[in-house]
Write a structure and sequence with these properties.
Chain B: This is ABC transporter permease. The complex is a heterodimer of chains A (about 325) and B (about 270). Chain A has about 325 residues and is α/β, with parallel strands linked by helices. Chain A has helices spanning about 40-45, 70-75, 90-100, 105-115, 130-140, 160-175, 185-195, 210-220, 230-240, 260-270, 285-300, 305-310, 320-324; strands at about 1-10, 15-25, 30-35, 55-60, 75-80, 150, 180-185, 195-200, 205-210, 220-225, 245, 250-255, 275-280. The chains are: A alpha/beta (about 325), B mainly alpha (about 270). At the A-B interface, helix 2 and helix 3 of A face helix 1, helix 4 and helix 5 of B.
Chain lengths: ~325, ~270
């Protein structure tokens, strides 16, 4: 279990992680989700004792990382695919790590097999693709058969087969009762992998909740209606107490109703309909809504138009302004 | 978290944990599994031996003439003269042992596997010093044998048993070991290969010579205390004028290096990796 208490990291005037508290429990995959620059990697580095918190503390199974006596057996970490010496072979890289923690060298060949790098074990890692580098990093994380696993953006650079493999690996590790903490900036990836979500934006925790609950709470589905008598229909819907807005093309967007209800209302009042559809907000939209809201809430002043503007480095400016 | 966790993973190996011996073993595996170590040590050996041999061959006649005329016998200074050039390789190996961790990104993995940073640095230092001492002493003896072959041909050879000779050859290993540590300390302080190598070479080749120009007693003392000036006396059969005696000089160099290493340890513990 990982416990962060009021964890804060400042770089000069910039606060990368701002008074963050959370717990990561064993037996499930906890997704650490946030746009680039939200503080995910900084938080992970503090968990691993690489960066010193400016304030607060973080422990793994009750102890600060730097006080662990068998770090690789207690925690396995994939920091990034480039955290290795390219001049060393894959096997030698793992041997160096195994020796420091007294892990038997037979385990090196086991993990090479698990990640599928046995055939290139004697090759220098400098020539590896990003995906192979990730696999080698994962092999290093698994070396000590640890109870707690941290993966920072593990799917980066992996091909579809590799992505499927890492998803299943993380689920299996969690199923074995281990603590699995995985960061990503891809909501869709987290929806497929994680059981629990920790959402971070601008260094603050925005949500700490189950994946299903997160979707239910944060996504809003609505009914889209096109009608030649849109104004009349809008009046009727408002009279029924529904919340109505219009998209740029002039279609009505009715919140928290079913298509049946809208169709019945139109039929009873003789209004023609050209289109009637239920629009489900995706997880991606839910996430953008959340980060956009948080930015508005924290910065005040003029609310940013889209999540993409509000959060630097975040995805395409699409649905957020239509919904929000 | 004790009773409810399903199928708690079994401990891989009950004895798996950090010890200083294991960290040492790991650092030994690190230094021997990169090709640059072999190339650097080979450069150290080849450059030192070839230059010592070449200069002895060229200078032997002049030395014989000087001795015949009753002038000062320069032969002892020629035995390991090539190490003055080969030493750059020892400095580079020391610097790289630390800066390569930073330039490759390996430092993050290293410190995750071994979060006891001071222990890791100490292990790294021990391995480096041992490797350089052994290779340095072998280099010293090879320099002696080849150079002395040339001097013997003109009857100005120096016997291995002559006073100070064995000490100077073992001293070559000692000096190069501490020079490597000196480079390693610069590497941990600057965390940048080119910067640390430049500073190291400047301190050894440039500043060490230039401070000799400062007049008076102050200048003499500053020149004496410069790292390479102090440390290299242990490599010479007879200590140079105005310099420390061999062992005190080496002690000064070792102390200066130790101070830099301790400073480096403090910074390594304190700084974000």
């Amino acid at each position: 279990m990982i416990v962060a208490e009021s964890l804060t990291k400042r770089y000069g005037a910039k606060t990368a992680v701002d008074d963050v508290s959370f717990e990561v429990h064993p037996g499930r995959v906890t997704g650490f989700l946030g746009p680039n620059g939200a503080g995910k990697s900084t938080t992970m580095r503090m968990i691993l004792g690489l960066d010193r918190p400016s304030a607060g503390r973080v422990t793994v199974d009750g102890r600060a990382y730097r006080d662990l006596s068998a770090p690789m057996v207690q925690v396995g970490a994939l920091i990034d695919a480039k955290a290795l010496h390219g001049g060393r072979t894959a096997r030698d890289h793992l041997v160096v790590l195994a020796k420091s923690n007294g892990i038997p060298l037979t385990r090196v060949d086991e993990v090479l097999d698990i990640v599928g790098l046995t055939s290139v074990a004697k090759k220098r890692s400098g020539g590896f693709s990003l995906g192979m580098g990730q696999r080698l990093g994962i092999a290093g994380a698994l070396l000590g058969d640890p109870r707690v696993l941290l993966f920072d953006e593990p799917v980066n650079g992996l091909d579809p087969e590799g992505i499927l493999w890492i998803r299943n690996l993380m689920k299996r590790l969690a199923g074995e009762g281990r603590t699995v903490f995985v960061s990503s900036h891809l909501m869709s990836e987290m929806a497929l992998t994680a059981d629990h979500l920790l959402v971070i934006g601008r260094g603050r925790i925005l949500a700490d909740t189950g994946v299903a609950q997160f979707i239910a709470e944060n996504s809003v589905s609505h009914v889209k209606v096109r009608s030649p008598q849109a104004d009349r229909l809008a009046e009727l819907a408002a009279a029924a107490g529904w919340q109505v807005s219009r998209d740029p093309a002039g279609a009505l967007l009715v919140q928290e109703v079913t298509t049946d209800q809208v169709g019945d209302l139109a039929g009873h009042n003789g209004v023609f309909l050209h289109e009637l559809a239920k629009v489900e907000a995706s997880l991606e939209e839910a996430f953008m809504r959340l980060t956009a809201d948080s930015v508005e809430y924290h910065t005040g002043g003029t609310p940013p138009k889209t999540a993409a503007e509000a959060v630097p480095g975040w995805g395409p400016p699409t649905v957020a302004d239509r919904i929000g | 978290m004790t009773t409810t966790a399903p199928a708690a993973p079994t401990a891989l190996a009950p004895g798996a944990r950090l010890t200083f011996g294991r960290i040492l073993d790991s650092e030994w595996a690190k230094i021997k599994t990169v090709r640059s170590t072999v190339w650097t040590l080979l450069a150290l050996f080849v450059v030192s031996v070839l230059i010592s041999w070449g200069i002895a061959a060229l200078a032997a006649s002049d030395v014989a003439k000087d001795v015949a005329e009753g002038k000062k016998n320069d032969a002892p200074d020629l035995l390991t003269v090539g190490v003055a050039f080969g030493q750059i390789a020892a400095l580079v190996l020391g610097v790289m042992s630390m800066t390569a961790e930073y330039s490759t990104g390996m430092i993050r993995t290293s410190l995750t596997a071994v979060p006891w940073r001071a222990s890791m640095l100490a292990a790294k230092a021990l391995v480096l010093a041992l490797v350089l001492f052994v290779v340095g002493a072998i280099t010293g003896f090879c320099c002696y044998f080849l150079a002395n072959l040339m001097l013997d041909a003109k009857d100005v050879g120096i016997a291995l048993g002559d006073p100070g000779v064995i000490r100077s050859l073992i001293g070559t290993g000692l000096y190069l070991a501490v020079l490597g540590l000196f480079g390693m300390a610069l590497g941990v302080l600057l965390r940048h290969t080119a910067g640390a190598i430049t500073l190291g070479i400047a301190l050894i080749f440039v500043v060490g010579g230039v401070v000799g120009l400062i007049p008076g007693k102050t200048g003499d003392w500053i020149a004496k205390l410069m790292p390479a000036n102090a440390g290299s006396q242990v490599m010479s059969v007879e200590a140079a004028d105005k310099m420390f005696r061999p062992w005190p000089g080496f002690a000064v160099f070792a102390a200066e290096t130790l101070i830099l290493l301790l400073l480096g340890t403090l910074l390594l513990e304190k700084r974000d990796a």
